[in-house]
C-alpha cells in the first residue's frame, strides 16, 4: 500500500493525465458512498455527502476560473488531490465540514433570500414566456 501511495503521489506530480486521476479520486469514491448513503435509512450519512458535494461544486467553479493560473504551479494536481481527500476524510474536521461551516454556510445565510427572489422572478418570467409561446402556437396559422 505505501508503495502504491508513493507511486500515485509521484504520478500526480509528474505523470500524464494527472488531472483525470485526480478527478477520478475526487469523484469515484464519493459517488459510490453517496449512493450507499441514499440507499441507507441513516440521515447523517446523507448530510455528510451532500456537504461534500456542495464543497466539491464550489471548488469546481472556483477552479474553473483559476485553473489557467493554478495549472502552472508545480504539484498542483497532487495538492488538489490531497485537498479532495481531506474533504472526504472520515473525521469531524474534514475539509467539507470546515469549509461549509466557516465559509459556505455563512455566505449562504447572508444571501439566500436575495438569490431566492431572483430565482423566483426568473421562474415567473420563464413560465410567462412558455405560456405565451404555447398560446401563440395553439392559435393556429393567421387567417388571410
Automatic annotation (TrEMBL):
InterPro entries in UniProt: TB2_DP1_HVA22
Pfam family, one: TB2_DP1_HVA22
Entry keywords, A to Z: Cytoplasmic vesicle, Endoplasmic reticulum, Membrane, Transmembrane, Transmembrane helix
Claim: Transmembrane is one of the keywords in the record: yes
Protein topology in the membrane: Multi-pass membrane protein
Transmembrane regions: 6-29, 50-71
Keyword Transmembrane helix: yes
Subcellular location per the Swiss-Prot or TrEMBL entry: Cytoplasmic vesicle, Clathrin-coated vesicle membrane; Endoplasmic reticulum membrane; Membrane
Single GO cellular component term: clathrin-coated vesicle membrane
Protein family per UniProt: Belongs to the DP1 family.
Name the UniProt record assigns to this protein: Receptor expression-enhancing protein
Lineage: Eukaryota, Metazoa, Chordata, Craniata, Vertebrata
